Amino acid sequence: MHDKYITVAQLTKYIKYKIDNDPHLNEVFLKGEISNFKAHSRGHYYFTLKDEEARINAIMFSSSTKNLKFIPQDGMKVLVTGKISVFEANGGYQIYVNDMLEDGVGNLYIAYEQLKKKLEQEGLFDQRYKKPIPKIPRRVGVVTASTGAAIKDIISTIKRRWPLVEILLFPSLVQGENAAPDIVKQIKRSEDYDIDTLIVGRGGGSIEDLWPFNEEIVARAIFECKIPVISAVGHEIDFTIADFVADLRAPTPTAAAELAVPAIPDIKNYINQLQIRLTKTMQNKIDYNKKHLTEITNRYIFTNPISIYQTKEMLFDSLIDRLKYATTSLVSKKEKKYIELKNSYIFKTPYQLIDKKANKYLQLVSKLETLSPLETIKRGYTMTKKDDKVITSKKDLKKKDKIEITFQDGNIEAEVL
Predict the structure, then answer these.
(1) How many other CB atoms are found less than 10 A from the CB of residue 218?
(2) Edge-to-edge strand ranges of the sheet holding 410-415
(3) Are 174 and 212 in contact (CB under 8 A)?
(4) Are 184 and 217 in contact (CB under 8 A)?
(5) Which residues pair with 77 in a beta bridge?
(6) CA-to-CA distance for 232 and 248, rounded, in angstroms?
(7) Beta carbons within 10 angstroms of residue 86's beta carbon
(8) What does the alpha-carbon distance between residue 361 and residue 349 come to, in Å, rounded to a whole number?
(9) CB count in 10 Å sphere of residue 100
(10) Residues 356-382: pLDDT tens digits?
């Protein structure tokens, strides 16, 4: 019977399990008023978030509190984001806060995050699109309000660091409903003035004051600007959309001026370093060439130039001797050949050779005449042909065949009986 009863701890663990695994409670957006606020020495914030009808305990750990831009106080209306869970020690549920905004800026913050995500997905923040800032500009443009601390700080800083540069101001509204279109207009206008670097920004203020620099049209104008852009909006802790799309972000307007131009001492030091490097490079080159020249002048060809001549003379003599020997040898061979031909039988007794050849010719003719059938006919024999073929046997003939008989003095035709 007692098996159906559970402990309070088991119940609490079950409720905690249910709440922790409820997706609707993993990220909760609440608004309310802070009460019983306590900042722990370790950086954690403990407080109660309440409205007219209910309240909930809240805790914000130090890992999240360090990102806040304000100090929470009792009575302050805030917007919090966090996770609902159960604190098992007292069985109460509470919210673990990871982000907090002052009420009134919540909608702006949501719009900021949405636009930031959209532009980031389009690639407007990619480093590959960032244009390098010129190290020594001739002309710097500034898009900001014509009055106020921002422009004064920028001008004074630039003139102090690099007085050779020309500063062009493109006065613009920097807060309010019409500020964003005016900023875009001045950015586009600056592209007609042969500017090396453009500073776009304003001094510090609330999120509402800085909001024009979170507008999409301003972000796209900065991204599409042909001039390298340095953003300089608010204070160091302020980040706007303009900061992400700009080619370089400066934490303050003064810092933007410092990034836009070099300092004279830095340039002098840079020139001195270049001079040292140039001198060292030239000296190394001279030393190398001197060493190379010494190696060349110490070569045998320069220390004993006559030896080259002597070697060539010896080679020349050798070639002359070889030419003389070859010429003499060739002449001797030709002369010997000439003597052999001159003393040969054909030149000494040419007629004997002719007579010998004539006798041999006559012998051959005699043999041919002996073998000739004409000579046989002259001795009383005849030659019988049938169809121009010589008949050597009577078997080759039959009655009525037409034959031709050749005598010494002519031919007759006959018929075989």
Answers:
(1) 25
(2) 389-390, 383-386, 402-407, 410-415
(3) yes
(4) yes
(5) 33
(6) 9
(7) 19
(8) 19
(9) 24
(10) 777 888 888 777 776 666 666 666 677
Q: For residue range 121-178, list pLDDT tens digits in order.
A: 999 999 999 999 999 999 999 999 999 899 999 999 999 999 999 999 999 999 998 9
Mean pLDDT of 244-261: 96
Residue 358 one-letter amino acid? A
Mention every residue, 6+ apart, whose C-beta is less than 8 A from residue 245. 119, 124, 125, 219, 220, 222, 223, 231
Length of the chain in terms of residues written: 417
Backbone angle region of 276, left / alpha / beta, with phi > 0 → left and psi within -120 to 50 → alpha? alpha
pTM above 0.85, yes or no: no
- Dihedral class, residue 357 (left if φ above 0, else alpha if ψ from -120 to 50, else beta): alpha
Strands of 197-202's sheet, edge to edge? 166-171, 139-144, 197-202, 229-233, 248-249
Closest CA to 252 of 279, 237, 232, 276: 232
**Is the model's pLDDT at 106 over the cut of 70?**
no
pLDDT at 312 > cutoff 80 = no
- Cβ–Cβ under 8 Å, residues 81 and 98: yes
Looking up tokens 């609902």 gives 84
On whether the CB atoms of residues 195 and 143 are closer than 8 A, the answer is no
Cβ-based neighbour number of residue 115 at 10 Å:
15
DSSP at 400: T
End-to-end CA distance of the chain: 161
Instruction: Give residue 240's pLDDT band: very low, low, confident or very high (50, 70, 90).
Output: very high
Task: Report angle CA 36, 37, 40 to the nearest 5 degrees.
Answer: 125
Locate 195 and state its tokens. 């500017």
**pLDDT over 90 (residue 338):** no
Residue 170 gets which letter from DSSP? E
Where do the H-state alpha helices sit in 195-263?
A: 207-210, 216-224, 241-245, 253-260
H/E run at residue 98: strand 92-102
- Please tell me the distance from the alpha carbon of residue 379 to that of residue 320, in angstroms, as a whole number: 80
CA angle (294, 297, 301) in 5-degree steps:
150
Paired residues of 406 in beta bridges: 383, 411
**Which pLDDT value is given to residue 347?**
65
**Residue pointed to by tokens 């008989």:** 405
The angle formed by the CA atoms of residues 269, 272 and 278, to the nearest 5 degrees, is 145
